[in-house]
């Protein structure tokens, strides 16, 4: 009674006696007492039990059980709906950041196959993982009857799910009310298959969406003609040849040719005027044109060789095997194709003066690269000494990044690290026993390193900014170019910057201007700028554009609007209820809201939408697509045009991400994976994470195709195995 008396007046003690009889493990029933306290008002509540039942069986099943007269009928309702209401995979789905919950009901055989398909695609697991001894032990211990599909079944299921989802995505693309944008690039996989990937970019209810559409093998020359033919076939397969608006690709010459051929193959595609050059690639080319001036010259003979060149040659020899082992696959010839001869137009005297000033920068870069390489290669002497030095100086344990030709911003990252860890590097190079004195930097070299780091910083930040996923950024390219150009000009005029860096920056500025001029021939940049509420035509005025150019930009937008969007049929504008302006507080002046004294709202007539939009003041907008989507009633035609152009990607980074994931799928232990399996795994993995793989896509495959036996092989695919029939 003492415990009960300690309770609040509105609480009681509920003593619940649980009798657990476990025949399998206990010879006699065990009686266990459990005491818990309940609020007396909730003593008969079944809300939590109801929620638990819904999570396990689904709302439809619970309603069916509740509508029955007795327990027997409820069991029948449960048995008849358990496989129809909701798949067990749906029970595992995580809502936002909520805790993942699991059902007490075990997977059926069909559900297990479906979950295996999602798992291997989303997590990039090999098909053979189902044969792993430890994995099978984890899955079958305690439930030896649990069915695990064979590797052959899993491989077949993935490809069939791929074909099913392709049908629905094609239908979705065909029914999409706007135009579609694409990004593309070529890639050679680790198992030496040549692929071309295509990502599609659009929006849904104001949210920009980027998605891998297809990745196909192109087992022949990646010429512009072959790339264009492949691109056209992909568009034709999905039935969207007439919905192509913009294409984003890198600056290689074969991509320019591809755009020219596409213009011939697709009458609706305007060609170069709708080509977007990957801005991240342009940034890399500008930075590389600066850094290439500091490359050491390779000599055929070592007689009377300059000490810095000798050190560079030694570094090249040492790094050769390292680069072969761990350098990611990259088509570096594309970068060289975009660079050209930056010194063209310079006089012999200017080139000679430039060469003379480059020595100190070449020296410090060569020393830092060699130091990083030496520590990496000496795992028994220098690396332990480096780690001990970091501990002694209370610095975070990190290895020095290596400066790799094909890795963007790697020189900046090496310099940034070196300046931060200068104390450790100086201590290591001054230690005679480590034999690193030849890599020691003096104060002047450290000063040059700092100035070069500061010069390259803007390219690193710009690359990160424009590499953010699903962020409309095409309208930001020209302002970014203007800012970088102004920054480089300031560096060129800064007398505290070494002459060698200023001369190299001048060459980088020339490379930037080369691609800036190309935007004059690409209308999509100007249209995106004008349809950005933050810029409109005002940016061009502030940037000092001539009035003739500003008028030309406005005419480009007007012509495209009149040609494609002005006559577009729209639904009646959605009436948005507004609060009664006269129901406000007494402090508000009624004349501020008197209809006859306020300016009329902009009309949404087809002829006036563009003018009305341009007449409004500019405003800062955080989310461009959301801003336009919320104004679809005010601008029922112009909003569609704006969303089409703001979903044009400014970079091909999304394609690069596809290739990065491809390297995970095609590891050195998985080099025999077929082209068809690679394609299906990559596409289904992306589609599933985005929510485009429905349970019905998988259950349809599972229900129509019985599992293969452990010793049964997957049938060969027919040439039209991936045909889209919608």
TrEMBL record:
Cellular component terms per the entry's GO annotation: nucleus
InterPro entries in alphabetical order: HATC_C_dom, RNaseH-like_sf, ZnF_BED_domain_contain
Occurrences of domain HAT C-terminal dimerisation (ranges): 609-687
Keyword Cytoplasm: no
Keyword field: Metal-binding, Nucleus, Zinc, Zinc-finger
Region (Disordered): 321-341
Pfam families, A to Z: Dimer_Tnp_hAT
ATP-binding found in the keyword field: no
Protein known as: HAT C-terminal dimerisation domain-containing protein
């Amino acid at each position: 009674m003492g415990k009960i008396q300690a309770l609040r007046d509105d609480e009681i003690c509920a003593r619940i006696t649980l009798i657990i009889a476990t025949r399998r493990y206990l010879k006699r029933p065990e009686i266990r007492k459990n005491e818990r306290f309940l609020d007396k008002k909730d003593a008969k509540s079944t809300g939590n039990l109801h929620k638990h039942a819904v999570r396990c069986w689904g709302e439809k099943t619970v309603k069916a059980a509740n509508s029955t007269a007795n327990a027997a009928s409820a069991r029948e309702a449960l048995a008849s709906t358990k496989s129809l209401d909701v798949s067990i995979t749906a029970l595992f789905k995580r809502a936002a950041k909520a805790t993942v919950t699991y059902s007490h009901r075990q997977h059926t055989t069909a559900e297990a196959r479906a979950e295996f398909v999602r798992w291997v695609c989303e997590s990039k697991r090999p098909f053979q993982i189902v044969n792993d001894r430890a994995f099978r032990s984890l899955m079958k211990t305690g439930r030896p009857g649990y069915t695990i599909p064979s590797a052959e079944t899993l491989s077949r299921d993935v490809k069939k799910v791929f074909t099913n989802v392709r049908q629905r995505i094609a239908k979705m693309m065909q029914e999409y009310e706007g135009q579609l944008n694409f990004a593309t690039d070529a890639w050679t996989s680790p198992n030496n298959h040549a692929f071309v990937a295509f990502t599609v970019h659009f929006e849904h209810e104001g949210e920009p969406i980027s998605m891998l559409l297809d990745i196909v093998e192109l087992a022949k020359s990646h010429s512009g003609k072959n790339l264009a033919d492949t691109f056209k076939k992909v568009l034709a397969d999905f039935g969207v040849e007439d919905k192509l608006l913009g294409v984003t690709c890198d600056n290689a010459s074969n991509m320019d040719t591809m755009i020219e051929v596409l213009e011939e193959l697709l009458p609706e595609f305007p060609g170069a005027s709708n080509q977007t050059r990957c801005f991240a690639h342009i940034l890399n080319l500008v930075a590389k044109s600066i850094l290439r001036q500091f490359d050491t010259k390779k000599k055929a003979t070592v007689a009377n060789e300059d000490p810095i060149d000798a050190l560079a040659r030694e570094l090249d020899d040492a790094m050769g095997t390292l680069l072969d082992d761990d350098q990611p696959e990259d088509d570096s010839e594309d970068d060289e194709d975009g660079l050209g001869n930056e010194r063209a137009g310079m006089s012999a005297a200017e080139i000679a003066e430039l060469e003379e000033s480059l020595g100190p920068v070449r020296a410090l870069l060569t020393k830092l690269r060699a130091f990083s390489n030496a520590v990496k290669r000496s795992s028994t002497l220098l690396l332990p000494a480096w780690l001990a030095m970091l501990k002694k100086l209370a610095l975070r344990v990190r290895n020095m990044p290596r400066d790799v030709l094909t890795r963007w911003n790697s020189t900046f990252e090496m310099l940034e690290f070196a300046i931060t860890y200068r104390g450790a590097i100086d201590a290591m190079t001054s230690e005679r026993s480590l034999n690193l004195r030849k890599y020691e930097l003096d104060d002047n070299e450290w000063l040059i390193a700092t100035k070069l780091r500061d010069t390259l910083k803007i390219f690193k930040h710009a690359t990160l900014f424009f590499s953010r996923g699903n962020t409309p950024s095409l309208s930001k390219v020209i302002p970014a170019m203007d800012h970088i150009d102004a920054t480089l000009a300031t560096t060129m005029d800064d007398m505290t910057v070494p002459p060698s860096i200023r001369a190299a920056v001048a060459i980088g500025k020339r490379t930037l201007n080369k691609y800036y001029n190309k935007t004059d021939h690409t209308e999509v940049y100007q249209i995106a700028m004008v349809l950005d509420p933050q810029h409109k035509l005002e940016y061009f005025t502030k940037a000092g554009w001539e009035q003739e150019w500003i008028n030309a930009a406005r005419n480009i937008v007007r012509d495209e609007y009149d040609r494609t969007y002005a006559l577009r049929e729209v639904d009646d504008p959605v009436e948005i209820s507004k609060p009664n302006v006269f129901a406000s507080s007494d402090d508000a002046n009624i004349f501020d809201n008197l209809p006859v004294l306020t300016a009329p709202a902009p009309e949404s007539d087809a002829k006036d939408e563009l003018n009305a939009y341009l007449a409004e003041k500019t405003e800062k907008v955080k989310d461009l697509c959301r801003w336009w989507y919320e104004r679809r009633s005010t601008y029922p035609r112009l909003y569609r045009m704006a969303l089409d152009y703001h979903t044009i990607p400014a970079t091909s980074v999304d394609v690069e991400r596809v290739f990065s994931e491809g390297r995970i799928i095609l590891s050195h232990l998985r080099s025999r994976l077929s082209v068809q399996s690679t394609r299906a795994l990559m596409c289904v993995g992306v589609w599933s994470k985005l929510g485009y793989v429905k349970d019905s896509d998988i259950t349809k495959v599972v229900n129509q195709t019985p599992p293969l036996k452990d010793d049964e092989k997957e049938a060969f695919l027919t040439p039209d195995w991936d045909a889209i029939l919608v």
